[in-house]
Design a protein that fits this description.
This protein is mainly alpha-helical and 185 residues long. The chain has one domain (23-184). The protein is 69% helix and 4% strand.
Length: 185
């Protein structure tokens, strides 16, 4: 840690020297969000998530149906059922409701984790591609021109690297296989 501080202190001192010359900026501009969205891998992640979301919705409908059946059964108190037996059935239903809610929440967390993993894989590949493009073209500054987060109001077409980054990402990472976190360990 001390060595890092010494290097930082030396660099700061060098930067303050009057003869220190900053490198000329060679800029590249990318719409990072567009590349991720339009990439094969991005579409792959969204398609897989849509399929999983559809399965989860079916599972939730089934759970709701089970709960409704149980609830309607309890509302029609069976003749000859003692108060303690009825109370035990109500308690069992409450327990089942809690279990089923836990299952739904667990599935949603699992889906969020899978989505984040998939998008993270795309980010990792795209950042590596941007580093390669920067090295190949002598770029020392890449700005994000994406909507909402963009910093760029105008960029000459020759410095925009979005399409090239998208082409390379599609070639390098055509899909991302989403798996549960447990299977990635």
């Amino acid at each position: 840690m001390a060595a890092v501080n010494d290097v930082s202190a030396q660099q700061a001192a060098d930067d303050k020297k009057p003869d220190a010359v900053l490198p000329q900026a060679v800029v590249g501009v990318i719409d990072f969000q567009r590349v991720v969205k339009e990439s094969s891998a991005g579409r792959s992640v969204r398609d897989q998530m849509d399929t999983r979301r559809s399965k989860l919705q079916k599972e939730i409908r089934s759970i709701r149906q089970e709960l409704e059946t149980t609830r309607s059964g309890l509302s029609k108190r069976e003749p000859g059922l003692s108060e303690s037996e009825f109370s035990a059935k109500r308690q069992a239903m409450r327990k089942r409701v809690g279990e089923l809610q836990g299952i739904v929440q667990s599935r949603k967390r699992e889906m969020d984790a899978m989505f984040n993993y998939g998008m993270g894989q795309i980010d990792i590949a795209l950042i590596a591609i941007l580093k390669e493009l920067a090295e190949e073209r002598g770029i020392n500054l890449i700005l994000n021109a994406g909507r909402g987060r963009g910093l760029v109001l105008f960029a000459e077409k020759r410095i925009v690297i979005t399409d090239e980054a998208l082409r390379r990402l599609n070639a390098r990472l055509p899909t991302v296989e989403l798996t549960a976190a447990e299977s990635r360990k």
